[in-house]
DNA sequence: CATGAATGAGATTTCATTCAT
DNA sequence: AATGAATGAAATCTCATTCAT
């Protein structure tokens, strides 16, 4: 969770607060104009601080990008496990994970696209840091798939490929939002995507199990968000 | 095929030749270092010409990027129909299309990633040009899906979502090559990905039909590449 | 002893103490990295105070340099007369003066070099202040030479030139310490330098007189440091 | 003679010419205001070129300083041997060398002072380059002293110390010009300084020999510049 | 008195673009 | 058509200095 991005300022609360200001401003600007067309002065102005101040909280401009990207990948790493934690059924856990992933992406659409566009603008070590976090997130999905497989709900198949297909579902929502936005809601997108992919990978037992889950949710007023395994 | 990129030089053959030199050099450099870290001088040196010459064939640096990206999306628009043209069976056409897409992406891995990273570095009008071509390519896939649906091979579902899922399969090979390269061959990736997606979308009739296609290919020594519907 | 460098703080003892802290830190840093590469923060950190504090005792950064340089030239003005005060013989006074000069320089090697390098970094009025003190020191040497001349110990010659030659002997020890350090001790340097210069300027009477002084010192256990005229 | 300072521009004549422009402007500005207070824009303006141009001939600002300082130390290394080359008499060679040294210093007064002030502003490797050249120059003087010693003209003494005393005579003319300028001509300074130092180091034979040289010069109308051993 | 966060002016350096040759 | 030297605008980053606490 700790970054190597070091600050001249000591007070950790202040660092937190200032960095937040900077990251919020930078995320928007980077998304609109890209990393290189955004100047430190732009960021400072939008954040309501002086240009020099930025350098009290960051060593170089690239650190701002790192901070922005870390924010996203750490949102993934935080939100997805949280969405799964109250469920024990393997299939439900997998579906919750994908759903949560899509929702986090939706909440950070700009930054997700930014991650695709700008990770290579980072120096190798910073880039590795981001990719490592991303891999950790993917492992959560992969583990959920393996659990389904062990429970006989998903047929034997290449876990890496399915993992990436699910991940790309989530990322795709951000990457192609310019195309989807006028055609689908996020909920429809999630349901349709899962429909296609799960239909392709569930065993007959898995299909039955999925139908049961759907029935249970339909009986409860509570809706899927609060269901228990 | 026609670009708005105008050149001072008249002789169209020379323009063709010089632009090719420039695009080849630029593609490699943009992929390695990104658009902004690559200078016109870098490109000129790698292309074996002077910096000034570039400006005889291009009005601004961004035009070079446009030329590079056009090259990729036009490769898509050229190769995918070609891979389908000798086939009439709707399912086979769809599978050939996806396979061809993946192969073109593989042949332009660097440039495909570049498209994700750098399309936003273009001015709005140039960006639109690229996105329009991309949409055209997607339409080829979408039409193939619709054809399958009409033939009762694919069940009713959201065509846009499936289209994008298939497109993301192809792009994913480039985007995540750093992850896949050590784990899968391109062929395995294509087969596994189609396996998952088709299993999820084919109707019972479609499943049967797919099995037939597979049997036919297995009987021929020719292998799938030369089979006819 | 009085500087124009004014302080916001009233308590003179505190001013004294704080300035000492600052000067000690600054001397070392300026010597190692030069005036411009040394930041106020560097100085403050090494002095164990805050950056803001420095500005309670100094009006601008240049004042710190002035303080540092004043410290050296005032060490000259203090130490050299002290080394002469117990002697009345003109030749001995001159030799003591040069010897003392060399020793003070040795004790402030870094700051002496600094004076050569950085006096010009001062504003004109501050620079003049330093040069004036330096001239005062030189006058001490010049007067000692004139005394020897009047006593018939040194032949008629250009006093300014000899003065500067003697001064440069002292300064040279600091300026070229990178060259001398591995070849000579300070004592050897002083003896050899005086040997050369005095041999060149003493009258026959002066030569005899110098021999007498040397004999006297040799007879006393006391050694030259404590001898009386 | 060749520097590591590399230029983007190929044409060596142009490089020569531009660098000369730059060095002339920089020498004056560095001398007046010091290295750090002089901006690249100042230099460019005084040289009558654009700021960007400077960077076609130099990689960093520090390279300009290196170029300026090299110019001086190379003038030493060029002029001093030239002043000696037509003479074979060891004492005459030594005197010519010192005289030439003083004249070169006089011609580069500003840059000589700059060398004292600013050598430490160079990075270690560049600094070493300068100091090495300086040592080479000193070796010329040292060798001339040794030759006199072997010929029995100078008494046994520490060659390093005498070398530096003679070097400091030359440098002193620049370092203390603010003091000397109103009191002495360069010629008087040279004669008086040599008078003092040589009187102190010549053997009786050397003294006689020096007198002979002086007589010979006095007999010729030609004056010392054209005399032969 | 002391602190240290904040400011903002200013310097170096890069590079797209032009243009004389 | 081609070259490559020259320009000059713009961006990053540093740091002396101030000032609220």
Task: Chart the SSEs and their pairings.
4 copies of one chain form a homotetramer.
Chain A: H1 12-33, H2 40-47, H3 51-57, H4 61-84, H5 90-107, H6 109-118, H7 124-150, H8 159-175, H9 177-180, H10 186-201, H11 204-219
Chain A binds a DNA duplex (21 and 21 nucleotides) through helix 3.
Q: How many strands of chain A?
A: 0
* Mean of pLDDT of chain A: 92
**What is the oligomer described by this structure?**
homotetramer
From the alpha-carbon coordinates, what is the Rg of chain A to the nearest angstrom? 20 Å
Principal-axis shape of chain A? elongated
Pair of chains with the largest interface and how many residues each contributes: A-B, 39 and 38 residues
DNA-binding region (chains A, B, C, D): 39-58
Protein name (chains A, B, C, D): TetR/AcrR family transcriptional regulator
Domain HTH tetR-type (chains A, B, C, D): 16-76
Keywords (chains A, B, C, D): DNA-binding
């Amino acid at each position: 969770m700790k970054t190597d991005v070091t600050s001249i300022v000591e007070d950790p609360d202040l660092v937190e607060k200032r960095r937040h200001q900077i990251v919020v401003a930078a995320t928007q600007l980077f998304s609109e104009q890209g990393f290189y067309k955004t100047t430190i002065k732009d960021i400072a102005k939008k954040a309501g601080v002086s240009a020099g101040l930025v350098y009290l909280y960051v060593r170089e401009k690239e650190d701002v990008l790192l901070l922005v990207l870390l924010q996203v990948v750490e949102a993934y790493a935080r939100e997805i496990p949280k969405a799964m934690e109250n469920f024990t059924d393997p299939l439900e856990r997998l579906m919750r994970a994908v759903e949560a992933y899509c929702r986090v992406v939706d909440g950070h659409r700009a930054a997700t696209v930014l991650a695709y566009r700008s990770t290579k603008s980072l120096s190798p070590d910073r880039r590795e840091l981001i990719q490592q976090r991303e891999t950790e997130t993917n492992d959560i999905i992969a583990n959920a798939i393996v659990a389904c497989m062990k429970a006989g709900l998903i047929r034997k198949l290449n876990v890496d490929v399915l993992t990436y297909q699910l991940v790309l579902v989530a990322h795709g929502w951000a990457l192609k939002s310019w195309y989807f936005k006028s055609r689908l809601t996020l909920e429809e997108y999630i349901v349709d995507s899962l429909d296609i992919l799960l239909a392709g990978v569930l065993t007959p037992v898995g299909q039955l199990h999925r139908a049961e889950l759907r029935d249970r949710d339909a009986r409860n007023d509570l809706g899927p968000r609060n269901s228990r395994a």
